[in-house]
Specification:
Outer membrane efflux proteins (OEP), four-stranded antiparallel beta sheet, alpha+beta, 11 helices, 2 domains, efflux transmembrane transporter activity
């Protein structure tokens, strides 16, 4: 009879526990009217083809294709020593450590503890004489274990969110690397332009000095007046002013390059050669697959993934936590008996924690995580829109500069031919100095434009490599890979 009663009692207890869990779940898992409002932009909404017929991605070390060993050395130094890049790498290491800690917390945990204490027991409590009111030592040596059974995916969501954040940090580090390499290259080619402009200004000063000597000879021969002499003399200070301004810009740009490579006090003796841009394979149109190769887009997408997992983790908090707990060890009053017979103790069993009434805390937390997801999605959308504009701008600029260079070369040839004719006519006494100076100004103007266009071609080429991702390669969440 007693045995049957005990069996019935146990069955009732199990049924009551199951009913308690079901009622708790139905009462607490109230997530109605809480959901994300933002949506990821796809290729169709941006008007982009999935894949370009001429889809070309840069090499991871695209700058080496430019054929300038001096530039290669500067970028290598910058990637090895720049503090901004090291900060990004430290953030990556921190995110990876956080992911490892989250993964470790989801497995079984085991700890050991030893406690020893001398205490006086109360004479008016539950402890009977002769211990009541006496002084005695107590000791405990115990192993304790805990394993949270992830029935509702809370730990899995937390791990996925941590891994998403780590992958976003990895993409951020790659984006910083690409940006640093492109910044060094752009400053290098700016220095190229300034040195070429300086050489042109020095050539102009020499020409104007030569013209001044010619005017002085013609004045001595009675062929020119003081007017032509004063005009020639007034052009020399202007040429020297341009030279001084270019020296200043060269110094400042050199300082910027030295800071980028982590050696701000180093006097860099850099005189980059001026030559036409080397053709690097590049796409002719913007496509969705090209955008997936940008590290900033990948970082934004991984942040969306991490925020999505945070939402899943917030939802899982509405459900019970189920833990398996166990302990085994020794405990005694009197340290001399701690490891003796009868002092052993152990226990094992499940632990259930179910939120019933929390004053709206869980719903508020879910709303906050959902808002974070909306913000991450819109940040991704903004990054995609900006990337489309960036790539389109660089492609358009590249094509426009090619056309401009063709027209500039034709104008340069005409200006130099006109200057040669004006100079010969003046030397033969058939023309005046004003015609020579006007022709010289046209040559100077075209030469400056040629230098600027050549530098712009290099600068735009570098910007296009950056806009196309700079050779970034990484796995994206599946949802992005299909867009």
């Amino acid at each position: 009879m007693h045995r049957d009663f005990e069996i019935a009692r146990r069955r009732f207890s199990r049924s009551a526990l199951a009913a308690f869990v079901v009622l708790g779940l139905s009462a607490c898992a109230n997530m109605q009217e809480i959901g994300p409002q933002a949506a990821l932009r796809d290729a169709a909404s941006l008007g982009l083809p999935i894949q370009s017929s001429a889809s070309v991605a840069p090499n991871a070390q695209w700058w080496r294709e430019l054929g300038d060993e001096q530039l290669n050395g500067l970028i290598d130094q910058a990637l090895a020593a720049n503090p901004s890049l090291k900060i990004a790498q430290a953030r990556l290491a921190r995110a990876q450590a956080g992911a490892a800690a989250t993964e470790a917390a989801s497995g079984p945990q085991l700890s050991a503890g030893v406690d020893a204490m001398r205490q006086k027991f109360t004479a008016n409590g539950m402890i009977p004489p002769p211990l009541a009111g006496s002084m005695a030592e107590t000791g405990t040596a115990q192993l304790s274990g805990n394993w949270e059974l992830d029935f509702f995916g809370k730990n899995r969501a937390a791990l996925a969110a941590a891994l998403g954040s780590a992958r976003a940090a990895q993409a951020d580090a790659d984006a910083a690397r690409t940006l640093l390499a492109s910044t060094v290259a752009r400053n290098y080619f700016q220095l190229t332009r300034l040195h070429a402009q300086l050489a042109l200004a020095q050539r102009l000063l020499a020409q104007r000095t030569q013209v001044l000597r010619l005017v002085q000879h013609r004045l001595d021969a009675g062929l020119d007046t003081q007017l032509e002499l004063r005009l020639s003399e007034g052009n020399l200070p202007d040429a020297r002013l341009q030279i001084e301004g270019l020296h200043e810009q060269i110094t400042l740009t050199t300082h910027a390059l030295a800071a980028l490579i982590g050696q701000p006090n180093r006097a860099l003796a850099i005189v980059p050669p001026l030559h036409d841009a080397i053709e690097i394979a590049a796409p002719t149109t913007v496509s969705a697959d090209l955008l997936g190769r940008r590290a900033d887009i990948a970082a934004a997408r991984w942040r969306v993934e991490a925020a999505s997992q945070d939402v899943a983790g917030a939802k899982s908090q509405f459900y019970p936590n189920v833990n398996l707990v166990a302990f085994a060890g020794f405990s005694s009053i009197g340290l001399d008996r701690l490891l003796g017979a009868g002092s052993e103790q152990w226990g094992v069993g499940p632990a259930l924690r179910l939120p019933l009434f929390d004053g709206g805390r869980l719903r508020a937390n879910l709303r906050g995580k959902t808002a974070d997801l909306d913000a991450a999605i819109e940040s991704y959308n903004a990054a995609v829109i900006d990337a489309v504009r960036d790539v389109a701008d660089q492609l358009a600029a590249t094509q426009a500069i090619t056309r401009q260079q063709a027209e500039q070369r034709a104008a340069q040839d005409s200006a130099e031919h006109a200057y040669a004719i004006a100079t010969r006519r003046y030397e033969a006494g058939l023309g005046n100095l004003l015609s020579v100076l006007a022709a010289e100004t046209a040559v100077l103007s075209q030469s400056r434009q040629g230098i600027d266009l050549s530098a712009r071609a290099r600068d735009t080429q570098v910007s296009l490599m950056r806009a196309l991702g700079g050779g970034y390669r990484a796995e994206l969440p599946a949802a992005t890979a299909q867009k």
